[in-house]
Amino acid sequence: MPNKNGHLQHISQQFNTELGQLRTDFLKMGGMVQDQVSQAIEALVNQNTDLAEKTRSADKEVDQMERLVDEEAYRVIAKRQPTASDLRLVMSVVKMVADLERIGDEAKKISKFAISLSENDSNVHGPRGLLEARHISNHVSEMVRDALDAFARFDTALALKVMKEDKRVDEEYKTATRTLVTFMMEDPRNISSCLSIMWVFRSLERVGDHACNIAEQVIFMVEGEDVRHTPMAEREKIVGH
Amino acid sequence: MPNKNGHLQHISQQFNTELGQLRTDFLKMGGMVQDQVSQAIEALVNQNTDLAEKTRSADKEVDQMERLVDEEAYRVIAKRQPTASDLRLVMSVVKMVADLERIGDEAKKISKFAISLSENDSNVHGPRGLLEARHISNHVSEMVRDALDAFARFDTALALKVMKEDKRVDEEYKTATRTLVTFMMEDPRNISSCLSIMWVFRSLERVGDHACNIAEQVIFMVEGEDVRHTPMAEREKIVGH
Q1: Interface contact flag, A181 B191, Cβ < 8 Å
Q2: DSSP character at residue B148
Q3: Of A41, A175, A234, B80, whose CB count within 10 A is highest?
Q4: Are the C-beta atoms of A113 and A196 separated by less than 8 Å?
Q5: Membrane-spanning residues where (chains A, B) (predicted)?
């Protein structure tokens, strides 16, 4: 039978294992939604309806993962009563898991547009804006990857980088949207397919927003400072850059 | 000096006061975003740029409120180490506060479109779809109000009602969008303003989604069951309807 210290050490080891599991499962879910986004865009650009259907149904697994991670987080709080940085870790995961789930939702929406676009080829020039969609998709996928790496490595500088990228994505989004409006005005037969691609742009822009939310939580987790709705200069001061 | 029981009672009274404060502040924030949505639509329909500007800047107060409620929730968890239904209440608030903040964001976006529409009167017929925007807005505002009432009264039947309404809103959204596509095809000069109104529809539809998320959390808080991604029939069984 262990003495009191041995017993406490045992508890603290178990606690660390549970926190580790929470981190691992969160990152696993992160990997799943990253795949979802890249496959959805692949399906769109190559008009691959099979891949689109597969991506669409992958959303169920992501949803299950969200429940699992939330349950783990609640259990850790109820059983271990974490405080300070441990509590911030758990609470950040609870916030971030909702962002991951919504990234999955956006990927699902993109898959749906991929399916409807390949079914409906009424447009004269083939869908416009696919190159732009791929470009923005690469950009926001990088943001999601960096946000997850920032979480895995407690890397606040990387989190800050993610937030800075968001402005560039917003610009790319606006430019791409303007181009599509021009196509729509040139020939009203383009309107329907251009609108679908426009919704795809919007979904991708939202993915970038969610990556930013995750990055904000990483800074909160590491520094204990809530940087949501904070000017960039102040964020830089907090992170020490 | 109070005896041990008196001391515990004192702690538990303070705890109840803190939980009450958390609930009150959450509901206050709910009232703020409800006002934001209705004012944004008012500004849009009446082309009232002053009101639109006011609504847009009200978002800062909502953001501050989000920080406050989150801080309160974290403090309660760290200090009081709640379990069971108390923990579910606090965790639900942490989830729901993010939905309220995003409802505020959508209202802000609608205000921006209201401003750009009244500046840009290039469309031939005046903006189309305003009636539909008001109609969907009334519907989703009702959902937000009901979701907040369901939270305030632990009313799971009302929460269920909110989730059922979402399907109807999605239908209204689709019909309204189709009407606008027709206007765009009829006269390409309508494209720009129709697109703005289409983004407004989308924002409103998102508001409905957030109301649903809040309703799901209410059921989790009261019943301890996670009904996200659960078929409606199962939700009804859980709620006992």
Answers
A1: yes
A2: H
A3: A41
A4: yes
A5: none
Neighboring chain A residues of B206 at a CB cutoff of 8 Å: none
- Residues B114 and B43: beta-carbon distance below 8 Å: yes
What's the mean pLDDT when you consider all of chain B?
Answer: 93
Q: Where does B67-138 show beta strands of DSSP type E?
A: none
DSSP summary character for residue A97: H
Would the pLDDT of A213 be above 90? Answer: yes
CB B234 within 8 A of CB B160: no
CB nearest to B74's CB, from A67, A87, A229: A87
CB contact under 8 A, A91 and B87: no
Q: What is the pLDDT of residues A127-157, one digit of tens each?
A: 789 999 999 999 999 999 999 999 999 999 9
Q: Considering only alpha carbons, which residue of chain B is nearest residue A73?
A: B91
Long-range contacts (CB closer than 8 Å, 24 or more residues apart) made by A35-39: A36/A62, A36/A103, A36/A104, A36/A107, A36/A108, A37/A103, A37/A106, A37/A107, A37/A110, A37/A137, A37/A140, A37/A141, A37/A144, A37/A207, A38/A137, A38/A141, A39/A107, A39/A111
Structure tokens belonging to residue B116: 């750009």
pLDDT at A1: 47
Give domain A4-239's CATH number out of 3.30.540.10, 1.20.58.220, 1.10.10.10, 3.40.50.300: 1.20.58.220
Chain B CB contacts of A74 below 8 Å: 87-88, 91
Chain A CB contacts of B71 under 8 Å are 226
Helix (H, G, I), strand (E, B) or coil at A184: helix
DSSP class of residue B128? S
Name the residue in chain A with its Cα closest to that of B85. A78
Cβ-nearest to B83 among A78, A87, A191: A78
Instruction: Work out the pLDDT band at A120, boundaries 50, 70, 90.
Output: confident
Report pLDDT digits (tens) over B11-70: 789 999 999 999 999 999 999 999 999 999 999 999 999 999 999 999 999 999 999 999
Q: Where are the domains of chain B?
A: 4-239
pLDDT value for B3:
57
Phi, psi of A90 (to 5 degrees): -65, -45
Query: Would you state the pLDDT for residue A126?
Result: 65
